[in-house]
Structures are given as structure tokens and as C-alpha cells.
From TrEMBL:
Its cofactor is FAD. Gene3D superfamilies: Nucleotide-binding domain of ferredoxin-NADP reductase (FNR) module (3.40.50.80), Translation factors (2.40.30.10). Keywords: 2Fe-2S, FAD, Flavoprotein, Iron, Iron-sulfur, Metal-binding, Oxidoreductase. This is FAD-binding FR-type domain-containing protein. The lineage of its organism: Bacteria, Candidatus Magasanikiibacteriota. It comes from the Bacteria. CDD domains: FNR_like. One of its GO terms (molecular function) is oxidoreductase activity.
Length: 227
């Protein structure tokens, strides 16, 4: 597996405890939308590996990541202190949370940074693979402070008539007057004409998967990645 060094072009806070990191991509690096890389994180004792999904699509010239910084996490504490121009060591790509074809209707359910591989696949399907079938995203964050990349999703929705998305907050402030509650609340009557992709925490993925199976959706139509 290819190990390489990648220079940080941009690093910024995009939501509460969440940063995006854009890095250079080695020339001719090939990956599939939805895959992840492993960051090689130096520590005093040894190097440790942590997986991060690529949020850019394969045709973009840089890698984009979104990373939730968890308290006292080894990688989180390391990444928190990086700046533009620093070098990240990585290897990959890995993962089978991908969609190679362009002829399926796709339904995505994501929470938090689970948006990373999801938006990579959506951009790849709409822009590169020119999928004209329905593509829908049901997206959940905890509160207003946790929302990121909404403008990008709105732009995709404007540009591509076959793409729609719904955003819900599980713990919004009292000023929030849009959808609220967990994503599972809005996931009803799944249709066998879609392929389903879930990415986020274990609880959400298990619940959506159970709803799908109870409604007779075949396992082969269900894809998921748990962070
Ligand atoms: C396929 C895949 C893709 C992923 N993609 C992404 C992504 O795109 N974005 C993203 O943000 N994350 C992603 N993740 C999660 C990511 O790999 C890391 O798990 C995450 O960033 C936490 O790593 P860390 O080193 O900061 O925390 P760790 O050091 O692994 O710690 C995790 C948590 O456990 C706690 N902890 C650690 N040690 C102890 C201990 N001894 N006792 C009690 N508590 C402890 C820490 O305080 C922390 O809260 C992905 C994971 C997978 C498997």
C-alpha cells in the first residue's frame, strides 16, 4: 500500500470541534469516491494509524478531510496543532463504501463527519459519473454549531435537479425552526428502487439498517461505514 507525504494547503475550523484539512494530492493518485486514507500520527513512543475519509471527489486536485476533534484523542490533539505548510504522512486508499456504477437511485443517511465519504460519492455521481437518477441525502447534526458544508449541499441541489437533501438537528437551540429530531425520525417507507448508504455513528447505522431489512430491502442494496 502506497505511503506518502502530503503538504497542508488549508486547515480551518468549520464547526464546533470540527476542522477541515485540505492537502496536496500526489500526481496520478487513484482512489474511489467514499474511500479513506490512514494518517500516520507520530507520538513519543511510536506511530499510530487513524482512518479519515476523503471528502473530495477523485477528479479534484487536492484531498479534503473533515475531522471531529475529540478530547484527549491521540490523533485529534496532533491534528489540532497543525498549520498550513505542515506535512502529513498517510497511506491508502482503503475501503469499500463506494459506488462504481452510475445507473442507480441512491439514498444516503449521514451524521456528523459521516458527511465526508458521503459528499465525495455524491459529487462523484453528479459531476463525474453524470448519474441522472434520484440522489437523496438525509443529514443529521446535533445542533446549529455542528453544521458544516451546508452551502456546498445547497449549491449542488440548485445545480443538479436530481439531487435533494434534508437536514435535521437532534438537539437544536430554541431558535431553530427547521427539521428537528434524529435522522431515524425522517426515514420512513424505504423503497427497493434505491441503493442505501449510511455513514456515521454505530447507533444510527444499526437503526437505519434494521428499518431497511424490516421493510424487505435486500442486504446487497445496503452499504455502510461506521466511525
Ligand atoms: C473507516 C473510517 C473512517 C473514518 N473517517 C473519519 C473522518 O472522516 N472524520 C473523523 O473525524 N473521524 C473519522 N474516523 C474516526 C477516526 O479514525 C478516529 O477514530 C477519531 O479521529 C479519533 O481518533 P483519536 O486518535 O483522536 O482518538 P483516540 O486516541 O483513538 O481516542 C478516542 C476517544 O477515546 C478516548 N480515550 C482514548 N484512550 C482512552 C482511555 N485509555 N480511557 C478512556 N478513554 C480513552 C479519547 O479521549 C477519545 O475521546 C473514521 C474511522 C474509520 C474506521
Amino acid at each position: 500500500m502506497q505511503t506518502f507525504e502530503s503538504k497542508i494547503i488549508n486547515i480551518k475550523e468549520i464547526a464546533e470541534n470540527t476542522i477541515s484539512i485540505e492537502t496536496e494530492k500526489p500526481t496520478d493518485f487513484i482512489f474511489e469516491a467514499g474511500q479513506f486514507l490512514q494518517f500516520i500520527i507520530p507520538t513519543e513512543e511510536q506511530e499510530v494509524l487513524r482512518s479519515y475519509s476523503i471528502a473530495s471527489s477523485p477528479q479534484e486536485h487536492t484531498f479534503l478531510f473533515c475531522i471531529k476533534l475529540v478530547k484527549d484523542g491521540i490523533s485529534s490533539e496532533y491534528l489540532r496543532n497543525l498549520k498550513k505548510g505542515d506535512i502529513l504522512k498517510m497511506k491508502g486508499s482503503f475501503g469499500r463504501f463506494t459506488e462504481e456504477e452510475n445507473k442507480n437511485s441512491l439514498f444516503f443517511v449521514s451524521t456528523g463527519t459521516g458527511l465526508a465519504p458521503t459528499i465525495s460519492i455524491i459529487k462523484d455521481q453528479l459531476k463525474n459519473k453524470e448519474n441522472k437518477n434520484k440522489i437523496h441525502l438525509l443529514l443529521g447534526f446535533r445542533s446549529e454549531n455542528n453544521i458544516f458544508w451546508r452551502e456546498e449541499l445547497e449549491n449542488l441541489e440548485k445545480e443538479y435537479k436530481n439531487f435533494t437533501y434534508m437536514l435535521t438537528l437532534s438537539q437544536p437551540s430554541e431558535n431553530w425552526n427547521q427539521l428537528q429530531g434524529r435522522v431515524t425520525l425522517y426515514f420512513n417507507h424505504p423503497s427497493s428502487s434505491y441503493k442505501y448508504f449510511m455513514c456515521g455513528n454505530q447507533g444510527m447505522v444499526s437503526e437505519i439498517r434494521q428499518i431497511l431489512l424490516e421493510n424487505g430491502i435486500d442486504n446487497s442494496q445496503i452499504h455502510f461505514e461506521i466511525f
